User: Fold YggT family protein from Fulvimonas soli.
Amino acid sequence: MTYLLNAFSLLLGLVFDAAAALFVLRLLAEASRADFHNPLSQFVYRYSNPVLAPLRRVLPNWRRLNLAALLVAWLVLLLKQLALAALAGFVPALPGLLVLAVAALVDFVLITWLVLVFGWSLLSMLQPDGYHPLLRFAGALAAPLLRPLRGRLTVGMIDFSPTVVIVALLLARLLVAAPLYDLGARLAG
Assistant:
């Protein structure tokens, strides 16, 4: 029976992660001013807008940060934590659940950026069509992290700024997200 429960929790986690990814990508796309004419930007906008449009009337943007998308991503990850705990037969305390959801959101954003920077740097080394929608979308979302280091860590023809950003993101996962998870687990009981 535990094999079936593990399979079900994996599928449930994938569904919640896909929903959270949609809203995190919307958050990052608006923050980095990704090209709206890109088909991937339009996909993210089209499928996240029915949920975010009513919320944006109540919760407007702060600078370039879409607070409604941030709230919905946090709520999705909160529901994921609650559903996985319920499947395990455990009901966490509310403060612990809230902190676990914050930790999951921070970790999810860091992993998303990690995948985007790694994927963009890998694709740019392979020299595909520069106008490919995936390359342009990943480049736009990775640009705010890479821009401060661009051209400063170049040796010959190789730019090491993506490597430094990836290491910084991994360190942020270890030093920010992991302690938040530990705090949430202690508070959850």
